[in-house]
Automatic annotation (TrEMBL):
Pfam families linked: HEAT
Cellular component aspect of the GO annotation: cytoplasm
Classification via InterPro entries: ARM-like, ARM-type_fold, HEAT, HEAT_type_2, PP2A_Regulatory_Subunit_A
Domain of life, per lineage: Eukaryota
Keywords: Repeat
PANTHER family: SERINE/THREONINE-PROTEIN PHOSPHATASE PP2A 65 KDA REGULATORY SUBUNIT, WW-BINDING DOMAIN-CONTAINING PROTEIN-RELATED
Location of region: Disordered: 243-265
Residue spans of the HEAT repeats: 115-154
Protein name, per record: PP4R1 phosphatase
Any GO MF annotation of the entry: protein phosphatase regulator activity
Biased composition (Polar residues): 247-265
Gene3D superfamilies attached to this UniProt entry: Leucine-rich Repeat Variant (1.25.10.10)
């Protein structure tokens, strides 16, 4: 019964945590019994079971309970099969979604060598706009996961494609994550490539795209600032935040009340 398998999946993370805490007594139980079940349920015929399996996998990755070897030898191959060009549409959409979500939890080497080539292919998927939209919505996270060199060499060309996609929802998603993409690139790429691209989004024919671009304008401009002096930084959740400059943190209360100090902050 699918409901039984779904309930089972929901119990996997707490069981895995218990086994991790009691590892001397159960040294191989998780890897021999639980991990194969999670991997198998990613391809279950029932979508609710698959969804429960995906959620369980993400929790296990977040808790750092899955060994690097299992990620590379068991999890990634399944996701690459499910996201292949000839894969079933529903499976492909689910696979690209979980690839994007797990990228921030894996090592940069694993993402770059195993998942990045497939992600670049999926950005150009001409069959399913849902696949391209998931890629566009999570583009900033992928850039952050692989770093500046891979972003500029492989991802920026794909970002240009998505920013000129015929579906306006794709362009809107690109506008919304523009700051996160810009933050991962060098100042030169920001100035010479991303700035003209951003202007094209602000001038888009669709008002929803223009609105999203204008909402991202301030955050995009902030990526040109020097973080050490401006105090701007990106949180783990991808949002922009402000850290008070060092000189203000060390100032006493009288200096902080001074208007010029407040202005510099």
């Amino acid at each position: 019964e699918p409901t039984v398998r779904t309930e089972l999946m929901e119990q996997i993370p707490p069981i895995a945590i218990f086994l991790q805490e009691s590892r001397p007594h159960f040294p191989t139980a998780f890897f021999e019994y639980l991990m194969p079940i999670v991997v198998r349920y990613l391809t279950d015929v029932n979508n609710q079971v698959r969804k429960a399996g995906q959620e369980a996998l993400l929790i296990l990755l977040e808790q750092d309970l899955v060994a690097q070897s299992d990620i590379e030898n068991k999890v990634c191959p399944i996701l690459l099969d499910l996201s292949a060009p000839d894969s079933d549409d529903e499976y492909k959409v689910e696979a690209v979604n979980i690839i994007c979500k797990m990228a921030s939890m894996l090592s940069r080497t694993t993402v770059e060598h195993m998942l990045l080539p497939r992600f670049c292919e999926l950005c150009s998927d001409g069959k399913l706009f849902q696949v391209r939209k998931i890629c566009a919505a999570n583009f900033g996270d992928i850039c952050n996961a692989v770093g500046q060199e891979a972003t500029e060499r492989l991802l920026i060309p794909k970002f240009f494609e998505l920013c000129s996609d015929s579906v306006w929802g794709m362009r809107k998603a690109c506008a919304e994550c523009f700051m996160a993409v810009s933050y991962t690139t060098s100042p030169e790429v920001r100035r010479s490539k991303l700035s003209p691209l951003f202007i094209s989004l602000i001038s888009d024919t669709c008002r929803w795209v223009r609105q999203a671009a204008f909402q991202s304008l301030g955050p995009f401009i902030s990526t040109f600032a020097n973080p050490s002096s401006a105090g701007l930084y990106i949180r783990e959740d991808g949002t922009l935040s402000i850290r008070p400059p060092t000189q203000d943190v060390n100032s006493n209360s009288r200096q902080l009340s001074n208007s010029s100090t407040l202005m510099s902050s």
